[in-house]
């Protein structure tokens, strides 16, 4: 099941109950790519530029609208960075972050 926090007081967008564990999820979206085909996803809010931490969220889910591509990224992947560049259309798999593409089952402990 899915639960949404009351108001805008939390840094996550909703909670997912997956396999008996509750996951705090932050959702981000990107609409435009760079000329190289990369999409930037930030691990901070629009108003608060403090990066999300494990105290705030468990997973960041990024949706790249033009590509219809989802990335399920554990918040620990942002320990030393505030954003990451994703390259879904690259034939060379330029992005080391492709491991997170459609990684729903792996992250939720089912894969």
Query: Helical proportion?
Result: under 10%
What does the main sheet amount to?
5 strands, mixed
What order do the strands of the largest sheet run in, or round the barrel if closed? 1-2-3-5-6
β-sheet strand percentage: 25-35%
Name the helix and strand elements from N-terminus to C-terminus, one letter apiece. Answer: EEEEEEEH
Task: Please state the CA-atom Rg, rounded to the nearest Å.
Answer: 14 Å
The number of helices is 1
Instruction: Tell me the span between the first and last alpha carbons.
Output: 19 Å
Key phrases:
111 residues; mainly beta; five-stranded mixed β-sheet; 33% strand
Question: How would you explain this protein's 3D organization?
Answer:
The chain is 4% helix and 33% strand. The longest helix has 4 residues.
Short description:
This protein is mainly beta. The chain has one helix at 104-107; strands at 2-3, 14-18, 21-30, 39-42, 59-64, 69-74, 83-86.
């Amino acid at each position: 099941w899915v639960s949404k926090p009351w108001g805008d007081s939390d840094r996550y967008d909703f909670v997912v109950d997956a396999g008996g564990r509750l996951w705090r999820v932050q959702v981000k979206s990107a609409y435009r790519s760079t000329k190289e085909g990369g999409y930037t996803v930030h691990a901070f809010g629009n108003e608060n530029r403090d990066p999300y931490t494990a105290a705030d969220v468990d997973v960041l889910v990024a949706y790249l609208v033009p590509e219809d591509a989802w990335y399920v990224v554990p918040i620990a992947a942002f320990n030393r960075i505030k954003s990451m560049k994703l390259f879904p259309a690259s034939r060379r798999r330029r992005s080391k972050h492709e491991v997170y593409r459609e990684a729903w089952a792996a992250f939720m402990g089912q894969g």
